[in-house]
């Protein structure tokens, strides 16, 4: 009985969504890897049509080999301490300039906000234009309407 329960728990463990997702992802990556390798091998099987003609790919590879040799020679030299301190100083200067520009930008934005003024909320009462007659500021009292009662006569 102990053996069957062990297998049952393993089966249940394999059914969790996380494990299923990882299995699918691994399977997919393996398939991609195999397909990529197949395409690579397929490309390698094609020979040169003419021996005298050099392919552009090979030319690029030879140039890359030369540049890699030059890079490897440059890497053999010990790094200059002066150049590293120079780079550090340049970075510090750039940081200082950035901070100054940021401060200036902040001050400029504050000035622009001050020029705009405060945004006011309320009723808009524009001043009357000159061609209109001046309306007195005292409001006109409107009389309430009299209620008219209609009597319907049944005749």
Automatic annotation (TrEMBL):
GO process annotations (BP) = centrosome localization; chromosome segregation; kinetochore assembly; mitotic spindle organization; regulation of mitotic cell cycle; signaling
Organism whose genome encodes this protein:
Otus sunia (Oriental scops-owl)
Name of protein: Uncharacterized protein
Q: Can you name a GO cellular component term?
A: nucleus
Family classification: Belongs to the SAPAP family.
> What GO molecular function terms would the record report?
microtubule binding
Query: Residue ranges of region Disordered?
Result: 67-94
Supply the InterPro entries for this chain.
SAPAP
